[in-house]
Amino acid sequence: MVQAEFRNVCEACFKSYPQLRSMALSHNKIPQSKIDEIQTKQETKVEKRIKEYINMERLVYTQDSIFIKGLKDHKAQFKEAIEEERFYDPEEIEDITATFNSTTFDSRKLTPDKLGVYYEIVYQRLADYVPMLILQFMLKESAKMLCIQIMDERDGADVVKLLSEDSMEGRRRAGLHQRLDRLKKAQEKLSEF
After folding, report:
1. Staple partner for 100: which of 3, 24, 75, 147, CB 3.0–4.6 Å?
2. Cβ neighbours of residue 41 under 8 Å, at least 6 residues apart?
């Protein structure tokens, strides 16, 4: 999917310039295409950001209001389940659910219930965060890098040849300029009238 988007960006950015487009998509001088090279750099950045985010979640989740709310909701559901099964002993329920009240990070006290709540929250946050990272680094930043890198490649090359437009695009541009000139002349005549 990302590779297809890269190719679409390349086609869109260099639509009028077939020489630059072929340079971006071909395997000139280096074993990897420009797009693959940029993609590899950006993938590394995205992986690093995701790892940073996961490490940050490990540090702050016990003080997180969403996590604490999730624990309270889970505690309430747990109490309801025990009461429905008719194992209702208030002291026993308080002993079992007391582990939900601890908000300090102690891996020995992490119960599967707390871990379950934690992973639900982290999963939801990552589901929101990862697509934004992909959009930012893999598409937008990569498109900018592709344009800059292709323009840098023109050094030492025949710039006139690289920047020559496709014949159809050139004719379209010339037609639009002629049309603009005619409209300006018509506007002048109407303003004189």
Report:
1. 75
2. 145
CA distance 71 to 101: 8
pLDDT of residue 181: 94
Task: Give the predicted TM-score (pTM) of the model.
Answer: 0.40
CA angle in degrees (0–180, nearest 5) for 115-47-124: 35
Confidence grade of residue 161 (pLDDT, cut at 50, 70, 90): low
CA–CA dist 160, 168 (Å, integer) = 17
Token pair 């988007």 in the structure block, residue: 5
How far are the Cα atoms of 39, 119, 135 from residue 132, in angstroms, in the given order?
A: 16, 20, 5
Please provide the DSSP assignment of 22-65 as one string.
HHHHS--SSSS-HHHHHHHHHHHHHHHHHHHHHHHHHHHGGG-H
